[in-house]
Amino acid sequence: MPEQFEVRLPDDVRLHVETTGPADAELTVVLLHGWTLDGRSWHRQLAGLEELTAGRVRVVAYDARGHGRSSCMALRTATLAQLGDDLAAVLDEVAPTGPVVLVGHSMGGMTIMEYAHRHPGHFTARTAGLVFVSTTAEGHTHTAYGLSPRIARLIRLAETTGAGVLARCGAWRPPRALLRALRPSLRWLLFGDRCDPTDIRLVTSAVARATLRSIGGFRASIGTQHRLDTLTELGNVPAAALVGDRDRLTPPPCAESIAGALPTTDLTVCPGAGHMLMMERPDEVNAALLGVVRQALDDTAALEPLG
User: Fold this and answer.
1) How far apart are CA 190 and CA 281, in angstroms?
2) How far apart are the C-alpha atoms of 240 and 50, rounded to whole Å?
3) Which residue in 20, 30, 28 sits closest to 64, CA to CA?
4) What does the alpha-carbon distance between residue 45 and residue 296 come to, in Å, rounded to a whole number?
5) 109, 212, 113: which is closest to 163 by C-alpha?
6) What pLDDT, on a 0 to 100 scale, did the predictor assign at position 299?
7) Which domains are delineated in the chain?
């Protein structure tokens, strides 16, 4: 069973953290979820890592501020920069020594880039591998929702205006009845050709746990972040980037630009998949993650291949 506890940050925000695996493991894998989601997003990776790494890896998953079971925060701290600082604080508290592999989905991947930008010495000293899942280093540059540019601009205008309103709503959470009504829209936006009913229910449940402040507040920095220059300075760290070719939020050009800036990146494009790759294509995500873990451990012979 995972160990559950809280990490209290300097501004008194409390982060819900879950860990599995031995505290003295050779390597720590940290899973960072996407915007409006929570650590449960990684349930298929948690099971896969535990089975395939034979106790050599400790896995840490936590809910970002304002998400899941973590507490709400001041609006001014609803930024990617703050999330990068939070990641540094979580590492210091939960995995203060040893190498780490950082795995980020969507906003989680952007959090990793912000951590690398704001804490370069810390990042270099600790990070042994990176996995970017359905994320971007270029804000909303490539986000067209799979629609025409004109309609995409209108949607973005409505989205950013609505985000500003939601950000001022504090710790309130979306009504579950409304989210159930919006489930077909969430399915269209987040998933590709196939969607397991349990996955869309989990996503809807996660959005219901996110505070309106976090749903609205993070939108501005997510849309404007540009960190390709940061990626070019990361050297030879083993990395993987995965994207679905039906991703309406972070389409393939997002992953391609990451791979272009960080040449050590192994790029995987998943046909027919959308934004929720770790649910839609768990085998591909687990294979890429295990490949980076193997390199980080520098002991490929001791780990069985994915079957």
Assistant:
1) 13
2) 20
3) 30
4) 17
5) 212
6) 42
7) 3-302 (3.40.50.1820)
Closest CA relative to residue 286, chosen from 244, 237, 242: 242
> How do beta strands 100-105 and 127-133 pair?
parallel
For 261-301, the pLDDT digits (tens) are 999 999 999 999 999 999 999 999 999 999 999 999 974 33
Hey, how many other C-beta atoms are within 10 angstroms of the C-beta on 13?
A: 21
d(CA 87, CA 71): 16
Contacts of 304 (CB under 8 A, 6+ apart): 52
Task: Please state, in angstroms and rounded to a whole number, the distance separating the CA atoms of residues 195 and 279.
Answer: 8
Mean pLDDT (whole number) for 35-46:
94
Assigned token pair, 257: 């630009």
Residue 204, classed as helix, strand or coil, is helix
Locate tokens 């309130």: which residue? 172
Question: Can you say whether the dihedral through the CA atoms of 262, 265, 269, 270 is positive or negative?
Answer: negative
pLDDT score recorded for residue 301: 37
Enclosing H/E stretch for 51: helix 43-52
CA separation for the pair 1, 66 (Å, rounded) = 25
Amino acid in the structure at residue 147: L
Q: Is 48 helix (H, G, I), strand (E, B) or coil?
A: helix
